[in-house]
Amino acid sequence: MKSVKQHKTSEIKHQLIQMLVDEHAFWSYDIEAIDFDKISDDHLIALTMRHLDLPEIKQLFEIYSYAKIKNAWKRLLVPEGEYLYTLNRFFAWYYFKAKRPDAYLKTLESRRLNAMLQL
Predict the structure, then answer these.
(1) Range of the domain at 49
(2) Does residue 56 sit in the same domain as residue 80?
(3) Is-contact 16 48, C-beta < 8 A?
(4) Same structural domain for residues 41 and 5?
(5) Distance set, CA 93 to CA 25, 71, 101 (Å)
(6) What is the mean pLDDT of residues 85-109?
(7) What's this model's pTM, rounded to 2 decimal places?
């Protein structure tokens, strides 16, 4: 039997997924073929941050830790560089309290590039 927290988490996830479907976030997929229960937490976080609004992003913080959200953002959205620059700049400032969002993003992008070059 699910605990109250597990039920709330599951309910919020399903609401977010339905909103993402409504926003056509899965435009390149056959909706009938997607098993929405298998979408990873990191991808749900990234898709929500990319396609939905502040109230929905706030819901992420109700079901995931700050660190999990920040790591998903850094791993999946920050590497998109210029394409999502304005959005990532806002996230860096608003959610992750970067005092100098431009410099912070540049540092994150440089670290990622250096890590890739090390491979």
Answers:
(1) 1-64
(2) no
(3) yes
(4) yes
(5) 25, 15, 6
(6) 95
(7) 0.87
Q: Is the dihedral of CA 87, 48, 25, 113 positive or negative?
A: positive
In this structure, which amino acid lies at residue 95?
Answer: Y
Amino acid at 80: E
Instruction: Give the model's pLDDT for residue 1.
Output: 57
Contact 41, 67 (CB under 8 A): no
When pLDDT is averaged across residues 12-27 and rounded to a whole number, the result is 93
Q: Identify the CA nearest to 36 among candidates 23, 53, 17, 8.
A: 17
Contact (Cβ atoms closer than 8 angstroms) between residue 18 and residue 50: no
Predicted pLDDT of residue 2: 66
Q: Are residues 50 and 87 in the same domain?
A: no
Reading the block at residue 78, the tokens are 């920050």
Buried b (16+ CB within 10 A) or exposed e, 59-81: bbeebbeeeebbebbbebbbeee
Helix (H, G, I), strand (E, B) or coil at 28: coil
| 117 Cβ neighbours under 8 A, 6+ residues apart | none
- Closest-CA residue to 41 (of 14, 70, 7, 68): 68
